[in-house]
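Question:
Write out your own:
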Amino acid sequence: MYKIEHKPFGKLKELRLINASTGEWVSIIPGLAATINGLMLKAGDKKYELINGCSTYEELITEGKRVFKGTKLFPFPNRINKGQYGFEGKKYQLDINFPSEGNAIHGLVCESSFDIVNEIANENEASVELQYNYDGSNNAYPFKYKLNILYSLSEKGFACKTTVENTDNKELPMGDGWHPYFKLDGKVNDLFVKIPSTQIVLVNDKMIPNGLTSESDQFTQSTKIGENQFDTCYKLEEKEGKQQVELVNEKEKVQLAVWQETGKNKYNYVQIYTPASRDCIAVEPMTCMPDAFNNKNGLIVLKPKEILNLAFGVELTIKIF
């Protein structure tokens, strides 16, 4: 049986979707970018806490906000070069929220509060639907939209379905993503990773794509991460269906899979990032390349009243070697 608990989280609220039978759960903070702040899944007889979240409100609004832990990335993931872009003959200037690079990064909802519009808990799943209505009041992004996020927990694991509706009378440029930091017991160096792509997006010293890609099959088979450092965007094959990044802990004999729907206007890119702490690894499904508002790679343009559906999720299984 599944249930949903509402708990205070400092000045915010935590929603916890729980499988009462297994002890699995997912923690969501609607009041700050619909943040996914924790995830516990079971494989075999053991439960694993899989997301490196924030244990306190103070940590969430300082460290968590600084590195975008678990936040929704909309209307663009990753970077916009110097915060500048053009659309339909007009020029726009976004706030520079990554001053060390001089870029705008990770969208405009990172501090937004989402409303709870629906909750379901029964014998099969627990789910919560969140909504954010944007009125186009920011001159740097004057495009109205409605953003709905459906988080669910079931025996299949965790899933997130996003619905974007253009509520404006003009076209809307967009990209979407998520910014989780995963852990799987122990240091990242000891984990194995498998990435379903050979195409690496090359970038300049400001992490902006330079128009080139390189080919590498280094991680197309499960490979120990070791000392490898990632801050790397991979372009996936644009085919209908699901593709997944796999993290494996050989000692525990367990595999974490981050899946994402691919195909036309879906999550056809993934960013992999290892922080200096080496205690977690970010696996970020994205619909577009960094700086897509300028280079147009993966940029989605919604017509007035058009609706787009996207999905990704996390599964944990026993790995047989």
Remarks:
- Residues 2-318 form a domain with the Beta-galactosidase; Chain A, domain 5 fold (CATH 2.70.98.10).
- The first helix runs from residue 57 to 66.
- The chain has a mean pLDDT of 96.
- Residues 42 and 48 are 6 Å apart (CA to CA).
